[in-house]
Amino acid sequence: MGQHGKHRSLVRAAALLALLAAPAGAANCRLALVLALDISSSVDVDEDRLQRQGLAAALVAPEVRQAFFAADAPVALSVFEWSGRYNQEIVLDWTLISDPQTLAQAADRIAGSRRSYNEFPTAMGYALGFGANMLQRAPACLQSTIDIAGDGENNEGFGPQLAYAEFAFGGVTVNGLVVANAADFRSGASVTKFYAHEVLYGPGAFLVVADGFEDYTRAMRAKLVRELSPIAIGALDVTR
């Protein structure tokens, strides 16, 4: 079997392993948003805490809360953590964010969560496949977005481009949040370039860079506001 055929077999195996529980009940909404948190071995305990607390704080920031409720139709939100090829776990299953109380409860759930793994590499293709399968059982929404955050390049299994070819990514946008560090800047921002060239996918896809995990809350706030704000007519289509 050739290298490409081997990778395709891995993708199909991942698709079977990533199948989730029965579909959530259908509900009209404007956006199904999946947030993916990196818990690979490059993320230490303190960085993981900053990531979870940062996401929770960003979700209830005034400008983000305003963006959630900027239109009549609600947003469906889910969160999962990822690392190795078989190491993805749901932190927050599909939740229809219909009011500020529900948003606050979702943020509390994320803030109180604990990482499932800490010793596995960065299998981004598998993570994206898992996210695509989550969208298959999401409420019925006008748009679908996966937001994948991380501090490293794919180093296990197939990469993002093969995931996009093999999983159901029709009409899906994939945005990125890169957590850059000194090593990344010394190497010419290789992680940022990887996200820009290999990870971003679909109409209007964009990238936000955090200057270390200490900057995670600020970067996540900016990204969520952009994702949740009503679509601007004439936005650039950067479908890959």
What do you see in this structure?
Residues 11-27 and 233-240 have low confidence and may be disordered. Strands 3-2-1-4-5-6 form a six-stranded mixed beta sheet, sandwiched between helices. α2 (45-59) packs antiparallel against α4 (100-111), α2 packs parallel to α9 (216-228) and α3 (62-68) packs parallel to α9. With 240 residues, it is α/β, with parallel strands linked by helices. A hairpin with a 5-residue loop joins β2 and β3 (88-97). The protein has nine helices and six strands, in the order αβααββααβαβααβα. The two termini are 28 Å apart.
Task: Output mean pLDDT.
Answer: 85
**Radius of gyration over alpha carbons?**
17 Å
**Helix-strand pattern, N to C?**
HEHHEEHHEHEHHEH
Helix content: 40-55%
Q: What is the count of β-strands?
A: 6
Count up the helices: 9
Uncertain stretches: 11-27, 233-240
How far apart lie the N and C ends?
A: 28 Å
Strand content: 15-25%
* Largest pleated sheet: 6 strands, mixed
Order of strands across the widest beta sheet?
Answer: 3-2-1-4-5-6
Overall 3D geometry?
Answer: globular
| Main structural class | alpha/beta
What is the structure about, briefly put?
The protein is α/β, with parallel strands linked by helices and 240 residues long. The chain is 40% helix and 22% strand. The protein is globular.
Key traits:
alpha/beta, 240 residues, 9 helices
Write the layout of secondary structure elements.
Elements: H1 3-17, E1 29-38, H2 45-59, H3 62-68, E2 75-82, E3 88-97, H4 100-111, H5 124-136, E4 141-150, H6 160-166, E5 172-180, H7 182-186, H8 190-199, E6 207-211, H9 216-228
Parallel strand pairs: 1-2, 1-4, 4-5, 5-6
Antiparallel strand pairs: 2-3
